[in-house]
Specification:
The chain is an alpha+beta fold. The chain contains ten helices and twelve strands. Strand 1 and strand 2 form a beta hairpin. Helix 1 runs parallel beside helix 2, helix 2 packs across helix 3 and helix 5 packs across helix 8. The structure holds adenosine-5'-triphosphate. The site of adenosine-5'-triphosphate has 23 residues, from helix 1 and helix 2.
């Protein structure tokens, strides 16, 4: 029999990675961030984040990609748990366990995903009863991509990426991701973008969504979507890591409908017509020896959501 005073059972939240279908980077704002216009899509590569009541706050990272993720106070999931805790009257400390499957520092927002998952999980663990909108507002304090990982699906981001509006998208898109074994630092890629722009001396317009991309999404037309994939950080990522340009060319040669560097890279995302075409492309990229790893995933998929806690 459970005592009325027993701790609530642990809560596990599954959270997807993201790809940016387009990332338009505008001028630097007064607060130092760039204004962005982006279309996010959640893809079926997931981290699982489990929170449990504990004597003290803490975090552990497990799974195939745990290396490179800090298991200390800088971990974004632990920061998210603590942030939500400050908004809950008497939140008990939690221990966070991250089962890491999203590539780290790959431009797929893995850290932001864990933060989003921790918010949703702690809200349930503490029975805090926050509205989704309230969690999304807190998410924006943690990072520009965090609100989207709560929302999931396909969405438009503006401001510094944190202001969300759902985008109409029909059907399922099939992606192949070419991974690198060494990440790229997001601030370093933005700095390189600024440097290249200053050197070119061109005026940077306010960023806006591309109408052709929005209509390709509404039509569920992978070929039309592939023609509109774009990323203003791509040139900077390739400038820092020239091999990414070769990987992009190789994927297109091997039959991808289109390809783009995801976010600040170095992951390269290829859109293919069918799951079978995805297998063929994954095999060809793996055989080329140009990539550290290759993953296939479909999108859009759900944002952070509770699943049964797994007992190992
Ligand atoms: P984005 O696309 O949002 O710019 P990213 O996918 O390139 O991010 P992340 O995987 O989020 O990169 O990791 C960036 C850095 O954040 C890592 O190098 C790591 O030091 C730190 N970090 C903190 N918490 C986490 C976490 N829970 N998971 C992954 N990285 C984390």
């Amino acid at each position: 029999m459970t005592s009325a005073y027993a701790d609530p059972p642990p809560v596990t939240v599954r959270v997807p990675a993201k790809v940016n279908l387009e990332l338009n980077v505008g001028p630097v704002r007064a607060d130092g961030y760039h204004s962005l216009s982006t279309i996010y899509q959640a893809v079926a590569i997931y981290d699982d984040v489990t929170v449990a009541i504990a004597d003290d706050w803490g975090v552990a990272v497990t799974g195939p990609l745990a290396a490179g993720v800090p298991a200390d106070e800088t971990n974004l999931a632990l920061r998210a748990a603590r942030l939500l805790g400050t908004h809950v009257g008497s939140a008990e400390p939690v221990h966070v366990t991250i089962r890491k499957n999203i590539p780290v520092a790959g431009g797929m927002a893995g850290g932001s995903a864990d933060a989003a998952a921790a918010l949703v999980a702690c809200d349930a663990l503490w029975d805090a009863g926050f509205e989704r909108e309230e969690l999304i507002d807190l998410a924006a304090e943690l990072g520009s991509d965090v609100p989207f990982l709560i929302l999931g699906g396909t969405a438009m981001g503006s401001g510094r990426g944190e202001q969300m509006a759902s985008a109409l998208a029909r059907g399922t898109f099939h992606w192949v991701f070419a991974l690198s074994d060494e990440g790229l630092s997001t601030p370093a890629v933005y700095a390189e973008c600024d440097r290249l722009r200053a050197r070119a001396g061109v005026a940077v317009p306010e960023p806006r969504p591309t109408p052709e991309l929005m209509s390709a999404l509404r039509a569920g037309d992978a070929r039309a979507l592939a023609a509109t994939l774009r990323n203003d950080l791509q040139e900077a990522a390739i400038s820092l890591r020239p091999a990414l340009g070769e990987i992009l060319a190789a994927g297109l040669d091997e039959g991808a409908l289109g390809g783009v560097v995801s976010g600040s890279g170095p992951t390269v995302a290829f859109l293919v017509a069918t799951p079978e075409a995805g297998i063929d492309l994954a095999v060809a990229l793996t055989a080329s020896g140009m990539t550290a790893d290759v993953r296939r995933a479909s999108g859009p998929t759900h944002g952070a959501h509770i699943i049964p806690t797994r007992v190992d």
